[in-house]
Write a structure and sequence with these properties.
Structural class: alpha+beta
Distance between the termini: 21 Å
Strand content: 35-45%
Number of strands: 14
Largest sheet: 8 strands, mixed
Helix content: 10-25%
Order of helices and strands: HEHHEEHEEEEEEHHEHEEEE
Radius of gyration: 18 Å
Oligomer: single chain
Number of helices: 7
Low-confidence stretches: 2-36
């Protein structure tokens, strides 16, 4: 939740801020409810996670729920536990709640996204934002494997993150095994070129339920015409450099993440995360989140 991260300055798995590995590996996990096959299991995890942040502080909560191999955006991809272990506790209350959650058919990979709100302990403006968190289940329980987002100054009418979550609206379908590297190659293929701009390539990959979360649009862009406008506003030669991700064993839900550059010879100016959904015998983008990098 990048103010879960910004405020400090979102299986078969390809994880690591500097890696493109694609081997399945065990992960350290934290306890949580049994998932069944509903996004409500992810909402329940988020509820416990946010309660820990309110009651114990954000740093303590993150160290309780992050997997040992987790990645967070701060605002670039970094190892999550190392980042929070080296951070001071936030001087204020960080709270959040999901407004959308999905769980893979295997019951072991899911994500949630929603609004967050940072209320400072003393004087100062409140900050609100949008987060994306990916959860993974292993024999020891659930843990966060990815967390990112962005923030903006909250308006006077900001009421906090309490909301009703949509559950399992994407209707992703099981498929044969797909490696995370295959979806990272799809990210690479979205990079713009002289014959087809980045925005047109990405727009063609958006599924019917897709949402774009680009700074500072906490509410998200869901209308296809507005999505086209938002993507056309990005540089035509935008290049994506994938750095990791994972696919559910059921082959219906996946995520990738990396950095984005405005051109092939330019330095990265954003981080990105993609949620992929397999339906109608193909992978489509269910969600894109972008986070600005400094400079």
């Amino acid at each position: 939740m990048n103010m879960k991260n910004l405020v400090m300055a979102g299986l078969g798995v390809c994880v690591g801020p500097l890696l493109m590995s694609c081997a399945a590996q065990p992960a350290a996990t934290r306890g949580g409810p049994q998932p069944g096959h509903s996004g409500q299991a992810i909402v329940d995890l988020e509820t416990r996670f946010a309660a820990a942040s309110r009651e114990k502080g954000a740093r303590t909560a993150f160290l309780e729920f992050l997997a040992d191999d987790s990645i967070v955006l701060q605002p670039g991809p970094v190892w999550g536990r190392a980042a929070w272990e080296s951070a001071d506790e936030l001087a204020g209350t960080l709270d959040w709640a999901p407004d959308w959650a999905e769980l893979a058919a295997d019951g072991a990979l899911g994500f949630a996204t929603g609004p967050w709100l940072l209320t400072p302990a003393g004087e100062g403006a409140r900050i609100e934002g949008r987060y994306l968190t990916v959860w993974r289940k292993a024999p020891g329980g659930w843990a966060v494997v990815f967390d990112g987002g962005f923030g903006r100054r909250a308006g006077e009418d900001a009421r906090g993150p309490a909301t009703q979550a949509q559950l399992d609206v994407a209707h992703c379908e099981r498929s044969t095994a797909t490696s995370a590297s295959e979806l990272q190659l799809r990210d690479l293929g979205l990079s713009g070129s002289g014959d087809r701009p980045f925005g047109a390539r990405l727009l063609a990959q958006l599924g019917p339920s897709a949402v774009l979360f680009h700074p500072n649009g906490v509410e998200g862009v869901r209308d296809r015409a507005a999505q086209q406008a938002a993507l056309e506003a990005l540089p035509a030669l935008t290049q994506l450099s994938p750095m990791g991700g994972a696919v559910a064993a059921s082959g219906d839900l996946a995520y990738t993440y990396g950095v984005s550059s405005p051109a092939a010879d330019a330095k990265a100016n954003a981080s990105y995360a993609h949620i992929w959904c397999h339906a109608a015998e193909s992978w489509t983008l269910l969600l894109e989140l972008r986070t600005r990098l400094p400079g």
